[in-house]
Every structure is written in structure tokens, then in C-alpha cells.
């Protein structure tokens, strides 16, 4: 912990991966942290226990360290909302991969960069999901199997991608060779 003028400032890490199979070890390597909040959950929404715990924990003068902007959130609005919550508590935020260090409300250049990067990241993700869904739909239209097939595990991310790109539940079920109820269950789980 750093101490300045009688106050204690902490370097707080927030580490997130989307699934239990992913490795957290590559994030914030070599950064000296006083407290770390780690979770293995999707960043599709802000209802994450460790994110909330980190926001409750931080105090004025602390610095929140994040490996990259996408670890905070998967869309621009959520990322900017989280960053605003951190700044409103008088804390700085350091996003290491993009090398952006926001120290306060009046840090106009850093705020502009964050807004642009959040928008670009969301656009890239949306484009990837659209291309993926188009590929699945094209394979399905040709009668080719889509996803991993029944002998292996269900391609959940592919199903979610196709649904997000506007595919119907029935089309998606047919494309992936699974039942309509399976697609409905995955759709419900991805919206929780």
C-alpha cells in the first residue's frame, strides 16, 4: 500500500475471464497489487459479484488495475458506466493493455480514448458475432453440420452467436443439430 498525507492508497486488481476453462494467470502479471478481485463469469452484464465487491471496496485515492478494457465489460455503455463508478469514488483506473491511466473526471484525453476504444471493442464483437452467425447459417443452408455435433459437447457460443445475430430458435436448433428446448435453455441462460 502507498501512503500519502496520512491516507492509505491501494492498488486494486480486477481480473475476469468468461469461463472456468480460461486461465487468469496472464492478466496483470508483474503488477504489485494490494487486493485482487477475480471472477469467472461472462462480461455481458454488470451483475457480477466480484465487480460489485471491488466497487464497494475501493476508496478515494485507490487505483483500480485491469488487464484490458474488455475485462470490465463487453459493451461500451457498461464499460463507461463502470469506469464512471470508479472515478466517482475518487479512484484512478489503469487499463494496462491499452496503456490508459485515468486519474480523474477532468482527464479529457483519457476519457475520449476510453470512449472510442469501448465503442470499437463493441463494434468488433458485434461484427464477429454477425460473421459467425452468417457462417453457421450458410453451412446450415447447404445441409452441412454446424457446431461440434452430438458426439461432442454442444457449441453454446455458436448458438448464442446465431441467436444474437437474429437467428430464430428453430433455425438455430436445426443448424446445430439440437432440440428446440436446448436452444431455448441456452438462450435463457445467456440472458440471465
Q: SSE layout and pairings?
A:
Layout: E1 2-4, E2 7-9, E3 11-17, E4 35-40, H1 49-57, E5 63-66, H2 69-72, H3 76-88, E6 92-95, E7 100-102, H4 108-141, H5 156-164, H6 169-176, H7 180-191
Parallel strand pairs: 3-4, 3-5, 5-6
Antiparallel strand pairs: 1-2, 6-7
Q: SSE string, helix = H, strand = E?
A: EEEEHEHHEEHHHH
The number of E-state strands comes to 7
Radius of gyration: 20 Å
C-alpha termini separation: 37 Å
User: Looking across the biggest beta sheet, what order are the strands in?
Assistant: 4-3-5-6-7
Please report the number of helical segments.
Answer: 7
* Largest sheet geometry: 5 strands, mixed
Mean pLDDT across the residues is 82
Structural class: alpha/beta
Amino acid at each position: 500500500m502507498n501512503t500519502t498525507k496520512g491516507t492509505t492508497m491501494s492498488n486494486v486488481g480486477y481480473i475476469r475471464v468468461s469461463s472456468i476453462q480460461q486461465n487468469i494467470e496472464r492478466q496483470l502479471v508483474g503488477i504489485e497489487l494490494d487486493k485482487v478481485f477475480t471472477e469467472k463469469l461472462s462480461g455481458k452484464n454488470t451483475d457480477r459479484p466480484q465487480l460489485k465487491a471491488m466497487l464497494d471496496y475501493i476508496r478515494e485515492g485507490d487505483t483500480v488495475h485491469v488487464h484490458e478494457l474488455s475485462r470490465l465489460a463487453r459493451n461500451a455503455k457498461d464499460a463507461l458506466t463502470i469506469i464512471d463508478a470508479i472515478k466517482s469514488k475518487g479512484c484512478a483506473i489503469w487499463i494496462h493493455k491499452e496503456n490508459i491511466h485515468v486519474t480523474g473526471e477532468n482527464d479529457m484525453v483519457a476519457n475520449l480514448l476510453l470512449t472510442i476504444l469501448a465503442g470499437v471493442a463493441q463494434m468488433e464483437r458485434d461484427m464477429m458475432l454477425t460473421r459467425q452467425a452468417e457462417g453457421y447459417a450458410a453451412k446450415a443452408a447447404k445441409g452441412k453440420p454446424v457446431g461440434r455435433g452430438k458426439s461432442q459437447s454442444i457449441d453454446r457460443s455458436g448458438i448464442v452467436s446465431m441467436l444474437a445475430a437474429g437467428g430464430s430458435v428453430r433455425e438455430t436448433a436445426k443448424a446445430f443439430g439440437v432440440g428446440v428446448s436446448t436452444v431455448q435453455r441456452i438462450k435463457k441462460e445467456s440472458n440471465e
